[in-house]
Structure formats: structure tokens, C-alpha cells
Design brief:
single chain; 254 residues; mainly alpha; Serine Threonine Protein Phosphatase 5, Tetratricopeptide repeat; 12 helices; 71% helix; globular
Length: 254
């Protein structure tokens, strides 16, 4: 089997894992069945990645990268969304009492500033997560880093583990929903984002995802009006985000 064929199978298994998470989240699968399917797919994924590693070791050249135009476009929207959330969260972080965690589960020394994550490499964060698999906050921070960089294949693995540990984590739900939309499964992506907003209506980034999934992925521009208006109702939106949302609202308003 060629490198490309194995790589295609890896992508399919990752898609299957996303489908399982969506089915569990929507109640179409019970938790026990979801656990069994996750174990099966993770076993398949490990075996496929092992075989890919063997081909790499044998010197088989990796094929040219796939067309990443959609990923680049998606990354621009992701970065815009992350900027929005960063601005919206700034006030709530500043209001916390000394010693309160800014992000649930992130080790206190990171939150307090004793460790600057900007100075920590992805490899170092991977090592920390491997040694502390139950520290959800650190894994989420790493997933967010991959997500913002457009390295969605790496981000999704960590987000799915976060959702196993915290099924109601809105950041992970939103990110998986957005990546699923970009992969061409907008209907499944929609269910993730809607679940995130049902859990936390103040998840501003979710409204940006929802508007774009409805308008671009599902061909429902009118359905983007409500989430865009909700997004514009948040205080403290950066001007570039407000401008982008207003421009999109003008396009989709009947």
C-alpha cells in the first residue's frame, strides 16, 4: 500500500472518530458504545500511523501536499475568531481573584506567569501532556495552538481527547465543529457548534462559526443572520472583527 493510500485511511479513521463524538453528543450513541468505537478506531489509527512510519523509514518519498486552499481560508476565519474570544475574555481574566485559574485545569504556574507558554515549544508541551494525560487544560492549550496555526490534523486528536474528559468543553466542541465543517461535513460540524452554544450562550466564537457554517457550508445565508447579530451584541469586539461581521451580515440579510 502506498503512502498516499495509508494517509487517506488515516484521514478516514479520524473522520470516523469525529462522527462517533458527534453521535454521542447528539444522543444517537450511548456512552458504552461510543467508548468501544473510540477504542477500535484509535487502535486502527495507531496501526496505520505505525505503517506510515515504516514507509518513512524505508525512504519512500512523501507525496506532494494536498490542496490546502480551504484550510488557509479556514485558518484566517479561525484567527479572527480567536482574536474575538481573546478580547472578550480579557476582562473576565482581569476580574479573577489572585490564585484563581484563568483557564480550567491549566497548571497554576502557567496561569500565574511563572511559565510563559510562548517560550514553550510544541514538543515540550506534547511531553508534558504525555506525562500528565489527565491535565485537560494543558492539552487544550496545545490543541488551541495547533488550531490557530492551521495544523488541524494534530489539533483534532487533542480536542477529541478533551471531549472524552470534558464532554461539555465548549472550546473543543466549537473547534471540532469548525474543522469538521472545513472537511466537508458541515451538517456534523453544525451539531458540535450548536451544542457548544447551548452549553454556553456567551461563547462568542461559536456565533462566528455558526454563521459561516450555515451560510457557506449549508447554503443557508438567512440562517447566518441571527448568530451574526448575536456576535455583534457582544461588548468589546475588536474593530476588525466587528467590521467583518457587519460586512457578512449585509451580504446575508434578505
Amino acid at each position: 500500500m502506498t503512502w498516499r493510500q495509508l494517509d487517506d485511511q488515516v484521514e478516514q479513521v479520524r473522520t470516523d472518530l469525529v462522527d462517533v463524538e458527534a453521535a454521542v453528543a447528539c444522543g444517537d450513541l450511548d456512552a458504552d458504545t461510543g467508548d468501544r468505537l473510540r477504542a477500535t478506531y484509535r487502535g486502527e489509527l495507531a496501526e496505520l500511523e505505525r505503517r506510515l512510519g515504516e514507509l518513512d523509514g524505508a525512504g519512500e518519498p512523501e507525496p506532494p501536499p494536498r490542496d490546502r486552499r480551504r484550510m488557509v481560508a479556514g485558518t484566517l476565519l479561525v484567527l479572527a475568531g480567536l482574536a474575538t474570544v481573546g478580547a472578550l475574555l480579557a476582562g473576565s481574566v482581569a476580574d479573577r481573584r489572585p490564585g484563581d485559574p484563568a483557564v480550567g485545569g491549566v497548571p497554576g504556574d502557567v496561569v500565574s506567569g511563572a511559565v510563559d507558554l510562548d517560550a514553550v515549544s510544541n514538543e515540550e508541551m506534547e511531553a508534558v501532556v504525555a506525562r500528565n494525560p489527565d491535565v485537560t487544560g494543558m492539552r487544550l492549550a496545545l490543541a488551541d495552538r495547533y488550531f490557530a496555526a492551521g495544523e488541524f490534523d494534530r489539533a483534532v486528536d487533542h480536542y477529541l481527547i478533551v471531549l472524552e474528559q470534558e464532554p461539555g468543553n465548549v472550546t473543543a466542541l466549537g473547534a471540532v465543529g469548525w474543522m469538521t465543517h472545513l472537511s466537508g461535513r458541515s451538517d456534523i460540524g453544525l451539531s458540535y457548534v450548536e451544542r457548544a452554544l447551548a452549553i454556553d450562550p456567551d461563547f462568542a466564537q461559536g456565533y462566528w462559526y455558526l454563521a459561516n457554517i450555515r451560510a457557506e457550508g449549508l447554503g443557508d445565508p438567512a440562517g447566518a443572520v441571527e448568530p451574526l447579530r448575536a456576535l455583534l451584541g457582544f461588548d468589546g469586539l475588536p474593530e476588525e472583527i466587528r467590521t467583518a461581521a457587519e460586512a457578512m451580515l449585509d451580504r446575508v440579510t434578505p
